[in-house]
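Re: magnesium ion structure - here you go.
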Amino acid sequence: MITEIFRLAEGQEVEKIRRAAEIIRAGGLVAFPTETVYGLGSDALREEAAAKIYAAKGRPSDNPLIAHIADRSALYELAACVPDWAEGLADAFWPGPLTLVFPKKPIVPDGTTGGLKTVAVRMPAHETARKLIRAAGVPIAAPSANTSGRPSPTTAFHVLEDMDGKIDCILDGGDAGFGLESTIIDATGPVPVILRPGYISAEMVREIVGKVETDRAAEQPLGSGEMPKAPGMKYRHYAPKAKLVIVAGKEAAVTDKINEMTAEQEALGIPCGVICARETAPCYHCTNKKIIGSRQHQETIAHNLYAVLRQFDEENTGMIFSESFEGGQLGQAIMNRLKKAAGYHIIQV
Ligand code: TXA
Ligand code: MG
């Protein structure tokens, strides 16, 4: 299959989105930009279309897909029961980087939900995504458009790296904004439970609903036999090829420790890399240090995380040492991805 790239240059947008929507309606696969990461879309109501997504990504079939909608009315076609507090969250954060999980209606095929009796629904804020969903006239099932186990794509080029020849087309809308996937909240119980942290933080949810819980799997590795509520959280996602170690603690102790460890590894002939903030970058001796963003602007760190991990993959780095980026509105989301990429290997200094 030849993967076509539709660049969304001015004046051509309507026509390109119309062609992409036709592909979705015909049961094909279209990668498209959202405000979080690029998604890999197909008709959420067709079992065989979802099967194509799993094949292209090499994704385990028990890992359910998020149904993307453009209008609130579509929610009630998919979800069997929407509690008042979830309506409140949708009012506050849709369109936006929030996914809500509800009991599903029979119209949603088991192929889309990985056999679960619930369905995850999100209304993206990205204009192109919403125009595509409206033009297709169906909800669009879309996981992140990466090969399973690779960092999520934040540019059309990342999508092409993973999906060339496997999908029908890519709508190239430039950089994805936020850079990390949406916050997922279980709305099947009495209280909102965060299954995956994202831009919409626990604090923001608490402000609307008054209460919020976080699933253990969002913060720490589970014991053997334990199952996370979001099946995808059990996989070692976002894994760079290199071994990644996070070093946490006071700034001076962290930079010292990372300098010591890179020197040790490089003496053994292992190519090393460092992930650091702009503020501390001058402290490192390693020649391959990558500035992920600024601690003064946490959103730059979220935005660049996956791209930096992909760069290290291309360079065949053997060992990566990263600073820790806890705290603030986005700390939980950033550290959830970084800790998983590190296989929870953290050195406290
Ligand atoms: O920002 C995002 O959410 C992006 C963009 C494309 O919208 N999508 C995304 O999809 O991150 P994906 O497939 O990479 O991650 C979906 C996560 C997985 O961890 C999956 O297990 C969980 O959502 N999920 C989907 N349906 C679920 C359900 N019914 N119950 C619990 N978890 C669910
Ligand atoms: Mg994903």
